[in-house]
Records
---
Amino acid sequence: MFKKILVANRGEIAVRIIRACREMGIATVAVYSEPDKNALHAALADERICIGPASAVQSYLNMQNIISAALATHAEAIHPGYGFLSENSLFAALCVQNDIVFIGPESDVIDRMGNKDQARRLMMSAGVPVIPGSGVVTVAQAKKAAVKIGYPLLVKAAAGGGGKGIRIVEREEDLEKSVVAACEEAKKAFGCGDVFLEKYLTSVRHVEVQILADHTGNVVCLGERDCSLQIGRQKVIEETPCSAIDEHIRKRLWEAAVKAVKAAKYTNAGTVEFLLAPDGNFYFIEMNTRLQVEHRISEEVSGIDLVKWQIRIASQMELPFRQEDIQLRGASIECRINALGGGKVSFLHVPGGNRVSFDTALIQDAEITPFYDSMIGKLITAGNDREEAVRKMEAALCELVISGVPTNIEQQSEIIRSPEFHSGQYDTAWLQKRKEART
Amino acid sequence: MSEFKIADLFRKPANPLEPGGTPRKPADDREQCPRCKQYFPRKKLEKNLRVCPSCGHHLTLPARRRLEAFCAGGSFSELFSDITARDFLHFPGYEDKLKKARDGSGENEGVVCGTGIVGGVKCALFAMEPGFMMGSMGAAVGERITRTFEYATANRLPVVGFTASGGARMQEGIISLMQMAKISGAIQRHGEAGCFYLAVLTHPTTGGVTASFAMLGDIIIAEPKALVGFAGKRVIEQTTKSKLTADFQSAEFVLKHGFLDAIVDRKQLVEVIGRLLKQHTTEKKL
């Protein structure tokens, strides 16, 4: 096992990882930017190193400084968390070059899965269902491919992510300008202008499968998460299990995810994302080669600590359980708590009780700065069934108090109370439509 | 941080009641003290003049119960019960409210008036009924109290008045406000005739009632913790833009500021009223 790990992140996820290390007896090194010098993650770690000014590019995305910090503190491994450098294959390779273990998959796997077109072709060859679409296309090729795929369709950046470089095309006459625009946006955002076409499915749900894979090829699936509640392609509330699928579809979905992971020769924790159509068919979208924000709800129902297993797998340990040993119990929900502006936490009350937790780096007098992600915490509840988890969430949201900073707590309550959420009848477009209908 | 109230920070969850089980039937013969939350047999509470045997909280005592309990040996005899409110303004919903108030309280108006003997002294009495539209003062309430004072003046009787009111009855508009002057005039003449008026303020005594006859007693006493005030606490805070203390407008607060002569426990009231009547009345002693 590693004796010391550097956590290359901030906020609640850095705290989450440091807590796992503290339980495992592993010493921790936190890195922090100048405005984060009094942040909880830096305080909780055994050692802390400032890696630059507020701007993420100069601090949490600054590979050289982070590697230097790891070398200077003799950290044996780096956990990247999510976001920042977690899916940066160059950083993973840089770690290896400096004899530091990158806690995650290997650099070339990140690369392979990070390129959406490549990943898509790999999945097709492995027999994982993908959304009907094309390979990388020029404008001329796009016109031909579009006829086969049919409208509406999506133009997507091959190197994309975070909703950038995506265009919805409803009619043939809009295709050319959409391809050109997506190309330019992709070039600016990702440095690669490759785009491909994809059938645009409506009334779909975003369902993702959590996977753990070790070096021996043992791949276990820890159930699926429904992340359909999104606004502007940002996830808002996630739940497990997905209430829209029966056991038959669930089994096929898990099998497809395991197939995808094996085809990618993937190790460590990962997530395979699918679109679920109303007819029960599902299609591979992409693979996230890292820990997800919403990993905690899978931990709640599986009883398996994903961060600890990430570390153990990176330290060449084998999973001591197989798929048949995995038992998922009950249901779990996560509400992302976002700051809607800056401010200083003047009063903080965190709800508690059985199977209610609030993962956060917030502390009394903490300053919310505009430099980083607006998510300031994750409220997680779990119960013997969905209803119990929902009731806990309703009560917990009403007890959560973050004074001094504007938050989305009340908006989350409204969603939890809505008949759509109660019935589980929602799709990826619902929240966005609801928001637009209100404004 | 002294005014910092943590309870205000939490919202109430909207979770519906979990189904199943047997719903608890409210026990007919038991009543809960609103302050200490203990349950007591109704009979025990009644015997104790609806003062909580555990914490001493003074629960609402209906007007007729009060008069019958305070007047010796069934000596209470009601007057002016034929005067009742009319909806002369055709105020929306007033007729319904009156019907509900009559059905709910068993009284036909917001005050019960009459004569009786307290502590050996014959007197005229009135007691406002909190169960009748919060004892609000309309034309009929004003007329009954006025006539009680006029009757007492004519018969050279002292008056003991128990107030409990949310103030003027808004459904009767300006007419209800005119009762303040009318009653005050009757009290003036009663006083000029050398008669004694004892005001006993019970929870709650507010608005136009406080601003007129409740505060015109030759002696004014109150029951413990009774709310005594004119405008509501929140209205004052919003108007003056200042924070008021938690005990603001409690009988104890009002006593401290010189508007009351004493606070007397309900169970001592008969004795205290009797003593005061004897001290301030020279005629009609029995």
---
Amino acid sequence: MDELVYNIAFYIFAAITIASAIGVVTKPNLVHSSLLLALCFIGISGLYVLLQADFLAAVQILVYSGAVAILIVLGIMLTQRSSMEDTNQNSGWRRGTALICGCFLVVVLIVIATTPWHYSSALVAQDTPSVIAQLLLTDYMVAFEVAAVLLLGAMIGAIALAKGGKEE
Amino acid sequence: MIGLIHYLTVAAVLFVIGVYGILTKRNIVAILMCIELMLNAVNINLVAFSRFMQPDVLTGQAFVVFTITVAAAEVAVGLALVFRVYHDHDTVHIDKLNRMRW
């Protein structure tokens, strides 16, 4: 019974994710695309819950659906003149691109299907935030500090770029 | 039984959709959205490997924390660049931004 529920939940979240991702690249209206992107992020956070990564699921909703998607909507609002109609059109040779991407997908799927994966039978870690915090503040301490500096630099750079320097 | 292969398949499809969008879209903001899709596909892969290969160590989940950090920084700087380009050129259509010098 549990397994049945798990399978149904997986297929629902996978369908939400894939369908809204297809909507992102096919919708002619850019605002619709960005809202579908937020829906896609929510589906991915559902997949994280199924993978027992509860902390990452919360981070995904907070950072991606809450911040990144809204930032992109803001970017769209500030860079379009008047009407949003037909703001997200595709280029001319869509069919060739789709063919190349389809070939790539087939190759990747064949590799996934033929690789012998080694599953581990260890018990799943409970209480993931404390385990991740343990890793971040011991083994990956340097990377953690570098990420902090990167965020600070990106923030200052974004402000400086958006504000613009003095023109001579 | 849903296993690693199912998650990898979903991630591969998501990644290919992102690649298709980057190659066909003509609006810079739309291309940024497709980059986000590809980054999320990689995150799904990392979490799935962490769950099925080393469920007791969670190294993959720590990696995803860093990926999310880099993605947030990338989208902030990217949108600032888009505002700048729009301010200077009055367009975000990449076919019209074809000058090497300005």
